[in-house]
Amino acid sequence: MYIAQILEKLRKTYPHQHEFHQAVTELLHSLAPVLKNPIYQKHAILERLVEPDREIFFRVAWMDDAGKIQVNRGCRIEFNAAIGPYKGGLRFHPSVNESIIKFLGFEQIFKNALTTLNMGGAKGGSDFDPKGKSDAEIMRFCQAFMDELYRHIGALTDVPAGDIGVGAREIGYLFGRYKKLVNRFDGVLTGKGLDWGGSLVRKEATGYGCVYFAQEMLGARKEDLAGKICSVSGSGNVAIYTIEKLHEVGAIPVTASDSKGMIYDSEGIDLSLLKEIKEVRGGRIEEYAQHKRNAQYTDVKDYKSGTNGVWSVPCFAAFPSATQNELSLADAHTLLNNGCKCVVEGANMPSSTKAAEVFLKAKICYGPGKAANAGGVAVSGLEMAQNASMHPWTFEVVDRKLRTIMKEIFENSAQTAQEFNDPTNLVLGSNIAGFRKVANAMIDQGY
Ligand code: NDP
């Protein structure tokens, strides 16, 4: 009843925010067993959680190389700071809108709570498309974006990071402008360059963390990834470092993709070729097949309607690492029919609601994004700790901490799932574990 009331109010207040509804609906349904405790309704916890603390929208005017003024929309949605300063990435992509940033900011609250570190939840971004822009255009856009954002962020207030379309280059330009505006060098952004406050392993953290999480899930069932075929979607930060770690643990990642198409390489993805195309040249995944003769390229327009070509490749484990709702109900059935035993979400909400239900019903190892991809923000938290102490840690130290955090996230989620009599359901386990930490902090601190 309580859940239904909240969802109904949300639908009426924000009728067009589909991704936000999807994220809230999924979370609230899985909280049903813990919400039997009347304390959460008494303190209006759900009402307060689904409404961000504040939403900041702003105009970003910048000049392109032809001397023409361009205008984009920027935003920062600060959702909840019950357990620490706001923390969450910035996304630059033409699809960015209020619904997408709200779904991401909402999920970030619970993901950050799972990391064991003290970070609240936020997200931001712009409908700016970095593709095809010159370096100088990217710099001018980032500077214009920061000209407004700097008023709202701070090392103990709100600490943004990267996401789709925001990598090391963008963080550099954003940080440079922030420093000039406030005349202070502090850890206001994470994902910084290694020479100026960044943390080792931050670049690799989300992908590595996903594989560590997969190892924990599989290990609990006495299985592992060694020698197993894995499918990965995307070819950005998360996908590349998932593929790198899969190779390291002896698995065979055979796919990668971008928004134009996918490649299948039965010999295992050639990581240095992939990095050369994507990280060095900023090229398209299609180029991979031009350099590697046995690899097959399939264009998106040749995918079967309503499906993603990556998920038609038979695999033991699938790592959706591109974007939200990239894995449909039909894809979920195809994966299971082809013998897939493990799905690990590198991206945020990559499985549609129905696809996620199918994975849960099949009781395969299903690692939801909030838990499985929390390694990125966890190492961002470690970057903040290193900045505060002005003492950088070695690669081995950060990697060991990341591995421990991923293990703890798995154990916390699995134990919570067990406590609520649904031991294989890590959606329920991770959602309830994250929720309890935030909700209890809200109760402790008053309304
Ligand atoms: P990148 O920008 O580095 O890469 C994104 C990849 O996904 C690209 O290959 C891109 O292809 C593809 N992609 C993006 N949008 C679409 C789309 N609509 N359809 C098909 N493919 C698409 O981003 P990240 O790797 O950083 O992020 C990927 C996912 O992981 C996102 O969901 C993000 O929120 C999530 N995530 C990222 C974290 C991080 O630390 N970076 C942390 C936790 C979660 P193309 O180049 O053609 O656009």
UniProtKB/TrEMBL annotation:
Entry-linked SUPFAM superfamilies: Aminoacid dehydrogenase-like, N-terminal domain (SSF53223), NAD(P)-binding Rossmann-fold domains (SSF51735)
Domain of life: Bacteria
GO MF assignments: glutamate dehydrogenase (NADP+) activity
Glutamate/phenylalanine/leucine/valine/L-tryptophan dehydrogenase C-terminal domain boundaries: 199-446
Keyword annotations: Oxidoreductase
Signal peptide extent: none
Family of this protein: Belongs to the Glu/Leu/Phe/Val dehydrogenases family.
Subunit note: Homohexamer.
NCBIfam families on file: PRK09414.1
Name by which UniProt lists this protein: Glutamate dehydrogenase
Source species: Helicobacter baculiformis
Gene it is expressed from: gdhA
